[in-house]
């Protein structure tokens, strides 16, 4: 993105107190009249050398830049702030305020919907020190604006949501008629993430939370027909911003490690108590006792065989990143990290692996994190791909139609969950396919799709996350050889994982044919592992079993006792093998889980910070 540039720098001899910014995008028909009106209004109560008017021209494609440049050249009180590309309304305001000279920072919409006779009150409220932020309001009881229903109803709903979720005391957060003190702007600017329509709402909310005095006063406002707001895309985007800000300001600060552990324990206990009301655990235990131990032994061997393949895959990933290590050492590192994921919440084991390869082989933290991210991408691609293949198989064989007919006539809530899981699986297949296409080309397909849904900064954030996700895959899949080797080993790993579960299910003699058993096993294990992506419990305990059980019951005639028994035994077997291998590897490599967690706490989710530890 081109850097914004400003013309007509402030004369050092001018004692500019008030800076008025006019955010402009393709305003060639009105910008000259708007600037003239603004200059006239300011001159009515301020000396000519006490203010400046900045046209924050935001990547315009019409003659607005030329007109703004001409006005700036003709009048020293006018400045033109140009950006080669769209910054968004919030981005344009922020960059212009940064370059402004005044201690009172004002902006209003260039359509002049707000009556300019209110400008003096807006400025003087902040200039006099009466408040730190002043904002016009169209929804004050004594002066409610006459707005068309298609704009008034969404506006009222939006403001109600902001008041409810973000605990704001204001009635109108969107009125484009606001003033900030320089102190407020400098204090809040780094915390405000939005760069478009939500920017000023976020400024108002954060100002109240920081204890600044925010003054709201009624204004006369006349709706304009040429609004730049997209009532579908931008309203959707601002709704997502409310949720994002609510999470950041109200929820996330309260989620400490202790709270997460307690909440996870409470949810687990509650789930178990709830299950006792619908599940005969005596019958489940009876089924487990009757399971064929020969099948269980075979499943144990199969699952153990998957671990050396995990070490080989991790060796290939690191080799693509420029580091050569023995597969035996890396198998131990994987064992330790997966054990950490079973012991600690929020996948802290991933950090532990980065610590192990750093402490024992000198592989930098950034490389460790990149390798882990690439491994996760291949896991998700493989799991979702397997689920998709089974869905196609069910469709071809007609099983999908039979399942749908069953669901239409069913009343059990569990079968509804099967439908949801199926839709989630399909969505995952589409998502990872787009990500894979992005990783294998120069085009950002994934990011482009997200940006088409919304233009706000939260959508930009999501697009950035998806693109980094694809970038992690590109790191390893940049060559056909790397993609083939890591992809093939990923398929082997998860095929062995599925076969383990299939053999465990067969140990319960569920009465299924080989083809149906394999198909159901692949789908149930795939969806079960997708459920484990949510870091709600260590190792996904409970999430995997629940998803596995629902899928087996929904796709077959297997009863709940067998489905639950197979799910519990399958996950328990895998976790026991993981823990045994993990603690054996800890002894062999002299690694402590608690030490590893403490050492990596400061570098969690921050490769840049990790890089500092390498210095």
Question: Mind explaining what this structure looks like?
Answer:
The chain is of the alpha/beta class and 615 residues long. The protein has 24 helices and 10 strands. It has helices at 31-43, 64-74, 88-99, 119-127, 149-166, 182-188, 199-209, 233-251, 257-276, 281-290, 293-320, 327-343, 349-361, 365-397, 399-408, 413-439, 445-453, 457-477, 480-506, 514-531, 543-555, 560-589, 593-600, 607-613, and strands at residues 5-7, 18-24, 51-58, 78-83, 104-108, 133-137, 139-140, 143-144, 177-181, 214-218. The strands form 2 sheets. An 8-stranded mixed β-sheet has the order 1-4-3-2-5-9-6-10, sandwiched between helices. Strands 7-8 form a two-stranded antiparallel sheet. It is elongated. One of its GO terms (cellular component) is plasma membrane. Keywords: Cell membrane, Glycosyltransferase, Membrane, Transferase, Transmembrane, Transmembrane helix.
SSE blueprint and pairings:
Elements: E1 5-7, E2 18-24, H1 31-43, E3 51-58, H2 64-74, E4 78-83, H3 88-99, E5 104-108, H4 119-127, E6 133-137, E7 139-140, E8 143-144, H5 149-166, E9 177-181, H6 182-188, H7 199-209, E10 214-218, H8 233-251, H9 257-276, H10 281-290, H11 293-320, H12 327-343, H13 349-361, H14 365-397, H15 399-408, H16 413-439, H17 445-453, H18 457-477, H19 480-506, H20 514-531, H21 543-555, H22 560-589, H23 593-600, H24 607-613
Parallel strand pairs: 2-3, 2-5, 3-4, 6-10
Antiparallel strand pairs: 1-4, 5-9, 6-9, 7-8
């Amino acid at each position: 993105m081109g850097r914004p540039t400003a013309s007509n720098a402030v004369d050092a001899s001018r004692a500019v107190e008030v800076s008025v910014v006019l955010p402009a995008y393709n305003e060639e028909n009105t910008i000259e009249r708007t600037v003239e009106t603004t200059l006239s209004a300011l001159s009515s109560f301020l000396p000519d050398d006490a203010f400046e008017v900045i046209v924050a021209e935001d990547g315009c494609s019409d003659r607005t830049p030329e007109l703004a440049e001409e006005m700036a050249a003709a009048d020293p009180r006018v400045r033109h702030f140009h950006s080669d590309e769209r910054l968004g309304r919030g981005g344009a305001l922020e960059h212009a305020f940064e370059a402004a000279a005044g201690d009172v920072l004002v902006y209003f919409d260039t359509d002049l919907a707000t009556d300019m006779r209110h400008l003096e009150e807006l400025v003087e409220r902040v200039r006099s020190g009466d408040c730190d932020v002043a904002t016009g309001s169209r929804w004050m009881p004594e002066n409610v604006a006459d707005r068309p229903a298609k704009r008034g109803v969404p506006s009222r709903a939006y403001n109600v949501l902001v008041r409810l979720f973000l605990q704001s005391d204001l009635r109108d957060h969107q009125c484009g008629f606001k003033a900030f003190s320089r102190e407020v702007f400098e204090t809040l600017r780094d915390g405000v993430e939005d760069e478009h329509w939500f920017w000023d709402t976020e400024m108002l909310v954060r100002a109240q939370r920081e204890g600044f005095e925010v003054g709201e006063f009624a204004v006369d406002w006349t709706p304009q027909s040429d609004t730049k707001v997209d009532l579908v895309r931008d309203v959707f985007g601002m709704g997502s911003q409310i949720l994002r800000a609510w999470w950041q300001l109200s929820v996330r600060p309260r989620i400490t490690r202790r709270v997460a552990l307690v909440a996870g324990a409470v949810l687990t206990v509650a789930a178990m108590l709830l299950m006792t009301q619908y599940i005969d655990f005596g019958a489940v235990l009876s089924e487990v006792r009757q399971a064929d131990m020969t099948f269980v032994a075979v499943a144990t061997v199969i699952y153990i065989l998957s671990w050396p393949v995990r070490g080989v895959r991790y060796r290939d990933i690191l080799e693509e990143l420029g580091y050569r290590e023995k597969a035996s050492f890396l198998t131990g590192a994987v064992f330790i990290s997966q054990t950490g994921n079973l012991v600690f919440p929020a996948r802290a084991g991933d950090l532990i692996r980065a610590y192990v390869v750093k402490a024992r082989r000198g592989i930098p933290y950034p490389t460790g994190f990149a390798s882990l991210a690439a491994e996760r991408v291949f896991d998700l691609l493989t799991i979702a791909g397997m689920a998709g293949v089974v869905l196609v198989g069910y469709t071809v064989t007609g099983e999908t139609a039979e399942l749908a007919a069953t669901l239409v006539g069913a009343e059990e809530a569990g079968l509804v969950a099967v439908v949801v899981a199926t839709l989630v699986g399909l969505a995952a297949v589409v998502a990872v396919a787009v990500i894979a296409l992005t990783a294998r080309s120069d085009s950002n397909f994934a990011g482009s799709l997200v940006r088409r849904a919304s233009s706000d900064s939260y959508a930009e954030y999501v697009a950035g996350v998806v693109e980094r996700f694809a970038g992690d895959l590109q790191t390893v899949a940049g060559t056909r050889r790397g993609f083939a080797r890591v992809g093939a080993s990923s398929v082997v790993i998860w095929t062995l994982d599925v076969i383990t579960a299939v053999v465990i299910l067969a140990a319960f003699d569920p009465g299924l044919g080989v083809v149906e058993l394999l198909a159901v096993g692949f789908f149930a294990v795939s969806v079960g592992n997708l459920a484990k992506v949510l870091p709600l419990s260590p190792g996904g305990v409970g999430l995997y079993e629940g998803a596995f059980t629902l899928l087996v019951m929904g796709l077959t005639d297997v009863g709940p006792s067998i489905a639950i028994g197979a799910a519990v035994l399958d996950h328990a077997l895998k976790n026991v093998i993981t823990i045994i291998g993990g603690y054996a590897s800890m002894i062999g490599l002299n690694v402590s889980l608690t030490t590893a967690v403490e050492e990596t706490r400061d570098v969690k989710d921050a490769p840049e910070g990790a890089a500092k530890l390498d210095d």
